[in-house]
Design brief:
alpha+beta; 24% helix
């Protein structure tokens, strides 16, 4: 959500102004996650094959927009303020945390009461249920209003106009329905705007995902023993101990049919009405834990901390009269994913491709250097070899998926309603 309001009663002006607000309804933040927020580049997930996130840069990307990150989760309220911008209510350090901002003790000091009021105004007051951190977590990023050229500067000014443009671009990113295809645990994303003088925010667009057949993918096969899933070292050692037949069994394919629904909301301020329009797309998706290739095992043993996942998704709605009569389903422009789209990378195929790639820290491109120009043993050479291996696997999967499965699927979807 883009909150365009410029002031809130009893809240520090630097925190109350226009801001981005990001909320989820997951499990919220606990001790490990709070610790990660306080330690730059120290990801607690980098050694866990069960989780995505490796560089500790996820929340740090927020500093593109703000100088202060505000977080509310499980009743706690935390501020991350590396430049010591906030000095009200006794705050003089690079951050603060109030363990219970919802019900502060009646005998707590005055500063704590003020900060508790601040948290409630910033995250709860007049917020719709979808955006309140009653469960999950909310991040508030007050837009950076000024900047300087010193080494202490975290970035450029983020004006409300620029923020609104970004919001419009994010709305556009939902329109083709692909954003959630490879995020197994995310079923919906919505974008809101809280206008400057409005009493409450309005919903602009939402994207929902529903599985018709097959269900969500697991990042790791259920047949892996729990101990092998704890660390990349344990995973590598377990896979190295398996014979060819056992590795083939682990590499089985999971296929699912998914429907994505994009809903746009158009508000008429004169008669206070809201018109909704929907666009539904049906997708066929496949995912494989690709450990059949011995090179995968070697690269994991050499220190690659990635899960050998390869996935493909094709829309069943591009083309409406069958493959032989209409090749229009081939007009879809495929995107490259590492759970989320990788910058603006395209596959140049009519399918979307996803894998656990080694991506640059800005997530806009892959490590794909000329291996002959890199010193053997260099981590970049290792990452490049990993990406080449996954891309070769995806090329084979996508070719089969597009030329065989997708044609059969489109035919069945349009002629016999895809019963299987």
């Amino acid at each position: 959500m883009l909150d365009q309001r410029e002031s809130l009663n009893g809240v520090d002006p630097q925190l109350a102004g226009p801001a981005f607000v990001l909320s989820d309804n997951g499990k919220g933040l606990h001790a490990r996650e709070w610790a990660s927020l306080s330690n730059l580049h120290d990801s607690k997930k980098k050694d866990s094959p069960k989780e995505i996130g490796q560089y500790g840069m996820g929340s740090r990307s927020y500093f593109h927009y703000t100088d202060v990150i505000l977080v509310c989760s499980n009743g706690a309220y935390k501020g991350i303020d590396p430049r010591k911008c906030i000095t009200t209510h006794g705050r003089r350090k690079t951050g603060w945390k109030l363990s219970n901002c919802l019900l502060p003790p009646t005998n707590c000091e005055q500063n704590a009461r003020h900060i508790s009021h601040e948290a409630n105004m910033l995250f709860f007051d007049n917020f719709p249920a979808e955006l309140r951190p009653d469960c999950g977590a909310s991040f508030r990023l007050p837009l950076r209003r000024d900047s300087d050229d010193s080494d202490n500067s975290l970035g450029a000014v983020m004006s409300v106009e620029k923020a609104d443009l970004l919001l419009s671009q994010w709305v556009d990113s939902l329109k083709d329905g692909k954003l959630l295809l490879f995020l197994a645990n995310v079923e919906e994303v919505s974008i809101w705007r809280w206008a400057k003088d409005a009493p409450r925010p309005t919903l602009m667009q939402s994207l929902r995902k529903r599985y018709l057949k097959g269900g969500a993918f697991n990042r790791l096969p259920n047949t892996l023993p729990p101990l092998a899933c704890e660390t990349y070292t344990a995973l590598s050692e377990f896979l190295a101990s398996q014979n060819w037949q056992e590795l083939q069994a682990l590499s089985c394919e999971h296929v699912a049919e998914v429907v994505t629904t994009v809903t746009a909301y158009d508000y008429d301020e004169k008669d206070e009405s809201c018109n909704q329009s929907e666009c539904k797309l049906t997708w066929l998706t496949t995912q494989r834990f690709n450990v059949e290739n011995v090179e995968v095992i070697k690269l994991l043993a050499a220190g690659c901390k990635y899960v050998p996942i390869v996935s493909v998704a094709v829309s069943l709605d591009h083309g409406s009269t069958g493959v032989e009569e209409s090749p229009s389903h081939l007009a879809m422009t495929g995107a490259a994913f590492c759970s989320l789209p990788i910058g603006s990378l395209q596959t140049h195929l009519p399918v979307h491709l996803n894998a656990s790639f080694a991506v640059h820290k800005n997530r806009r491109s892959l490590w794909y250097e000329d291996i002959t120009t890199i010193t053997d043993g260099d981590k970049h050479a290792l990452w490049s070899r990993w990406n080449r291996l996954l891309l070769n696997s995806l090329r084979d999967d996508a070719t089969t998926f597009n030329h065989e499965r997708s044609k059969v699927a489109v035919y069945f979807a349009t002629h016999v309603h895809y019963p299987h």
